[in-house]
Amino acid sequence: MELVTEPDITSGREARLFAQELQTIFRYLGVSTADMEKGQMRVEVNISVSKTNKLGTKVEIKNLNSFKVVEKAVDFEIKRQEEVLNSGEKVAQETRGWNDKKEITFSQREKEEAHDYRYFPEPDLPPMHFEEKFVEEIKSQMPELPEQKRERFKKEYGLDKDTTEIFVDNKDLSEYFEKVVSEFDEWLKIEKIKSDSKLHKLVANYLISDIKGLLGSKEFAEAEFKITPENFAEFIKMIYKEEISSKVAKMVLAEMFNTGVDPSSIVDENNWGQRKDSSELEKIIKEIISKNPKAVEDYKAGKQNALQFLAGQVMAATRGTAKPEKVHELLKKIL
Questions:
Q1: What's the gap between Cα 62 and its chain centre?
Q2: In which order are the strands placed within the sheet that holds 104-110?
Q3: What's the predicted TM-score (pTM) here?
């Protein structure tokens, strides 16, 4: 299939964004993965620079095979044609290619005028005409497209532009996100929690940052992902209710990622739950203080960094299971 646009694009960036959006639409429709590296999608640009309101001489750049190259080729060719016109010369109507090493376009052959092509109808490809009713029927069967998803994710989940864009670009990840979020519905009613935006943002942050880190260079694919939406939702609830610290959360998530075990079992098995016994925590703090007299002396001399050092020692001793706010409160009290 060849798709031709009107001459509405005015920069390399616009051309790249258009091509990327088109690729995303193909993927949402399920018609193609449109992988440019595999030759499933190619971009060819026709560039025309003019000093008047009329279109100038058209130059075509063939077989651009990456979005980055599309942007570079368009910007280079615009600049090249401007320089030709500013020097008083005429732009030649031609086909050009892209030299990736030199990052320049180069002439391949002169472009014929339309009448030189000697066009004639292809007898095996008859013209096709579609009634409006048929077009509307097709539209009604189409899935949610990228732009619709952008608007909905911002409105429904309160996500920022960058986060929303990551989910739009990763359809499988966005669908998993929504499955996780749907697990909160009944719990929110029981707990009488009115605003769920904090939960949405927690899910998004852990999926985009921590899960992406655990995946490494691999793409997210739910079919290969060991953590069920139910378990991921339970994990987020534990963070929300401060049952585990952020440090422990990372360890729990890594274990879930590798084993698929539910978070509660992992926390119970490793005794990673947030410490609530102040007397036990006080005992640990006193031990840390007795082992670090220099830090105690520095703190009493007004050096706040010393308190941070002692708090870090306590958090290490408790393997991150103590609340940082509680640690600072008790440290100051005991010191």
A1: 30
A2: 43-47, 59-64, 94-99, 104-110
A3: 0.73
